[in-house]
Amino acid sequence: MGKLVYSMITSLDGYAVAAEGDLGTGAEDPEVHTFIGDVFRPVRTFLYGRRMYETMVFWETADREPDVPAHILEYARDWQAADKIVYSTTLESVSSTRTRIERTFDPDAVRRLKAESDHDLSVDGPTLAAQAIAAGLVDEYHLFVTTSVVGGGTRFFPDGVRLDLDLVEERAFDTGLVYARYRTR
């Protein structure tokens, strides 16, 4: 059975999407990016909302750029090898292999995916993740916390949800970025 992991870069004040600007620096560092690639290598299925898919589809062709650093090349190849499910009512087609569109998020279908999987799955994007959290589907939370306070936006955790978590791993990087992995109790 696979675990469902929710992970995002988040500001120090808990926003996965800033109302204005970006979330700060740190994730673009090669050491951090290599670490993220290592953490997500066991994930073989990504669940995306449309906006997150449109951000991540960059990895479909990132390995074709000249002089690609090894950590970028490796992440691109891992992403390309994974299955992707995009939940969208508006997206007409996808531009990556191993990708399909679902019109609605069905918690029972995701439960079956987890039960039948011999690998981990990831739900990406705070809006889609909120649905998975509300349905009790998320097994682990991986936060990459920047040093910025952005003052508003879309929160990493949805409002109105109570979760009791156990910290199972943490790491601080020279950039100031902090990684924290929590497991659902």
UniProtKB/TrEMBL annotation:
GO annotation (BP), single: riboflavin biosynthetic process
GO molecular function, one term: 5-amino-6-(5-phosphoribosylamino)uracil reductase activity
Domain Bacterial bifunctional deaminase-reductase C-terminal: 3-178
Signal peptide: none
Name the UniProt record assigns to this protein: Dihydrofolate reductase family protein
Organism in which the protein naturally occurs: Geodermatophilus sabuli
Highest classification ranks of the organism: Bacteria, Bacillati, Actinomycetota, Actinomycetes, Geodermatophilales
